[in-house]
Amino acid sequence: MSKEFGPLTLPKSGKVIFFREPTGGDRLEVLKKNPAGSDDYVTMSELADLYIAAKCVTKVDDKATIGDYKFTFQSWSNADVAYYKAVFSKMFALSNESLDKMDQVVDFLLNGSGSADSSTSTT
Predict the structure, then answer these.
(1) Does the N-terminal peptide bond of residue 22 adopt cis geometry, omega within 30 degrees of 0?
(2) For 9, which DSSP code?
(3) Cβ distance 19 to 6 under 8 Å?
(4) Which terminus of the chain has a lower count of CB atoms within 10 Å, N or C?
(5) Residue 65 CB coordination number (10 Å)
(6) Which residues are registered as beta bridge partners of 9?
(7) Is 72 within 8 Å of 56 (Cβ atoms)?
(8) Cβ distance 22 to 52 under 8 Å?
């Protein structure tokens, strides 16, 4: 089982929550249950990120979350949702350091491939 993080006290309601790191399986499940059409890809991407964050909430005020993750935030204020989502994103998104390292890895892989077509530019 994943490591649980918390307690995190939400600023508006004072609810105390615990949550876990998302998995690739969380993303796949959310995307399977909520397929996106080409016209609404950006909106669906934002919604999927919100659902994934909701799916990772494990406890609210010492009560385990149960039921459909789509309703986790239903009774939360927008301020609490935004606060949790910001904390969650900061913890689990790629950092600038990770992005820089990724650029180095990509440059190495492309330049080490021996291909005459392996020029890259990093900004």
Answers:
(1) no
(2) E
(3) yes
(4) C
(5) 18
(6) 16
(7) no
(8) yes
Residue 35 phi, psi dihedral angles, 5° rounding: -65, 145
Contact 91, 110 (CB under 8 A): no
Assign 8 to helix, strand or coil. strand
Residue closest to 88 by CA, chosen among 50, 60, 48: 50
- What count of residues does the chain have? 123
d(CA 24, CA 70): 18
Q: What is the pLDDT of residue 119?
A: 47
Summarised one tens digit per residue, pLDDT across range 91-114 is 998 777 888 889 899 999 999 864
The residue type found at 39 is D
| Residue with tokens 């309601």, as numbered in its chain | 13
